[in-house]
Amino acid sequence: MKIAPFEIEQYFDRYEFTTPYLLCASDCETMSVAELLQMADVSLTDFADMRLGYTEAQGSQELRTAVAQTYKSVQPDHVVILTAPEEGIYLTMRALLEPGDHVIVLTPAYNSLLNLAQHVSGNVSQWEIQPTESGWQIDLAAFEQLVTPATKLIIVNFPHNPTGFLPTTDEFQTIIDIAQRHNTWLFCDEMYRGLELNGTPTLVSAVDQYQRAIVLSGLSKTHGLPGLRSGWLVVRDATLRAQLQNWKHYTTICPPAPSEFLALAALHVQDKLAARNRRLIEHNLQAANEFFGRWPKLFTWRPPQAGSVALVGLNLPSATDYCHVLAQNSGVLLLPSSYLGYGDQHVRVGFGRANFVDNLAKYEKYLLSV
């Protein structure tokens, strides 16, 4: 049974490592293994002496305990360590859904959040985020109309990729209340949690508010460690957790030992990693504000509230055509919204990299030359 193309990753396969001026990365600035271990006060010798044997299928007790401590009411047994955050989306859709089950997905979204649900259930309703003059908003009345007694799963992503939207506490509570009223599973992708900007408070995790919440998180975005491929699911329901674990036996079996070791080190200094990346994003956003202010006829700028990305309006007939020409002619890479399932007049911009300001200057030089 064929699945829809993973358009975002196919686009990055083509351009990410051959286009020098990347302006659409979703992750944050990374570091070397030595830098991470030094920050966490962990011996490089201990890492080198690690045995490369099989690990526990659910993840080591020590790592699951460290993950659980990042939530208010989560126990280590609720945590399933993943070989990559993407695995958590696949496992959830396979374990939870049957053909015909009704699913609601907040869109635009990372391809797998939408496509895997559609692939397994074939019955997906899209709840589309709405632009405002200066930002983004969710229509809770429209959402409530989509939810029926037959709805099996609701999928949301907060802080939101690609818009940078963050609901208020009351808005998030309304989503949870509606899910609870219908006894519906709520899958919340919280990969950008901890990257709230300009003093905006962090939402209480969905898993700390609702028994049937399933939370995905990991170290790729907020912590700036995508090369670890380390992530986790938090699932309170023991039956669903066992089903997820069974599917995991068919995918990766167990996490890699080196990733577990380094993930544990990262969690020991996660506040430092998150603060470092928030500062970098806020610094880069100052440059972005000035840049978009100089090009109001070309762009519609809606600054993000949280996370490391924003969806920027592009006042041209086709963002897709523009981004391909831009990459090939100038070496500057933006991600067109068509690959996010959101029309063809927006581009995703990423603010988490240390070379953002320099790359933005390269882009502006190109704009001034054409």
Write structural notes for this entry.
This protein is an alpha/beta fold. It folds into 2 domains: 7-31 and 271-369, Aspartate Aminotransferase, domain 1; 33-269, 3-Layer(aba) Sandwich (Aspartate Aminotransferase, domain 2). The protein has helices at 7-15, 33-39, 44-48, 61-68, 85-96, 111-121, 140-146, 169-181, 238-249, 257-268, 270-294, 319-330, 356-369, and strands at 21-22, 79-82, 102-107, 124-128, 130-131, 136-137, 151-157, 185-189, 213-218, 231-235, 299-300, 309-314, 332-333, 335-336, 346-350. The strands form 4 sheets. The chain has a 7-stranded mixed β-sheet with strand order 2-10-9-8-7-3-4, with helices on both faces. Strands 11-12-15-14 form a 4-stranded antiparallel β-sheet, with helices on one face. A two-stranded parallel sheet has the order 1-13. Helix 6 links the parallel strand 3 and strand 4 (124-128). The radius of gyration is 20 Å and the shape is globular. The model has no long low-confidence stretch (mean pLDDT 97).
Give a concise summary.
With 370 residues, the protein is of the alpha/beta class. The chain has helices at 7-15, 33-39, 44-48, 61-68, 85-96, 111-121, 140-146, 169-181, 238-249, 257-268, 270-294, 319-330, 356-369, and strands at residues 21-22, 79-82, 102-107, 124-128, 130-131, 136-137, 151-157, 185-189, 213-218, 231-235, 299-300, 309-314, 332-333, 335-336, 346-350. The model has no long low-confidence stretch (mean pLDDT 97).
